[in-house]
Task: structure prediction
Amino acid sequence: MSEQFVPDLAGEQILDVENGQGFVGRATDPLVLPQPYVTPSDFTAQFPQPLDTTEILAMCEELSVWQAIPEKETALNAETWREMTSLVFTSGTTYLWFADGECPEEYQHDGANVTVTNKNLGAKKSLSMREIKHSLAVAAANWNGINRIVGGFPAGEGVPGGSDLGTFAVEAIAGLKEKEVRLAMTLVLNGWDRYLVRGNSSNNSLEQDGIENYFTNVSNCTIGNTNDNSASGTFGSTAFDRFLAESCAKPTHIFGHPQAVQEMLLAYFSLGFQGSQIVNFANGDRIVPGFNFAGFINTGVGRLAVVADNWFTQNNAGGGVFQADLWAFRMNHNGEPLVYKQIQMPLSLVDLAPGCTAISFEVWAATSLIIKACCAQSQYTSQFTGRIQTTCTAIG
Result:
């Protein structure tokens, strides 16, 4: 390119837009006094900084187990059921065959009753009538008070077997009471999920027993199969398949911490020769199927649903390894639910008797976790590769 068409940017003069003259910069403008500039002392009193009307719940929600376990309603204070545990010949031997002209051997059966009592869970709030009225006026002004809240981050979002939903996404609120009701529901539901996993009536008699303590605390309920290979180091799909095949009652679901579930899926995904997971198309394109979108896993005993919840316990084993449990459950049998939430009082909002200048409300439910046929349930303890990290606070 000819030099005459190349502008000499370095030599161009910056002009004053108004007068067309050359622009001259000064360190300070002599017309502004005093120097340096001082903000009026009452500026913030006259023009206060407004508050963004949207409040964000910068916390994580976890509802995966709560959503995965079905509900069964009852009017009773407890659930009592009977499980037959033996069906044998009276003599204790197998006299199934008998001689011609004689009678067959007498038989008998036995079992045990199991009782699980419902427990109350909930939250209560008291609010001043004046505060409620004030909040309605401020929220309606739509410039300096909270009238919109954004829900927490779903901890199971994108995780195999996790819930992509929290208790709410975004909600407009008219005032203080409406906001507090919403937050109470969120707190109770997240706490409910936590205690479905970690509840321990031995530590607190008011609690229901969760999955991790159920088989220890509930009478006449001994878990059917356990396997502790925590000393061996890493998780292997072959060993896990052997474990699943050991029980005569095969599971339908696998519960566990998201990181443990991911490692389990990865172990199955890695089976086969190199490149066997690549899908090729006629046009030359190819993809590698992602296990992160799977809600099921194909095991040696069939296709099992996975449920991942952050409240399942992880223990740091050091060296980038953690120890955790995978719970292999048979959720139903011949149309009969074996694992469910018993609901005596559904989650409800109740306005309580008002005080002199205040009101109160509660959000509560009466419930218990029921796990029947404990011999059909299994617990697999192993070590998995991964770190234990804490980021956003978990609600509950």
Q: What stands out?
A: The chain has a mean pLDDT of 88. The helical segments are 43-46, 64-68, 129-141, 176-198, 211-217, 237-246, 258-269. Residues 176-198 form the longest helix (23 residues).
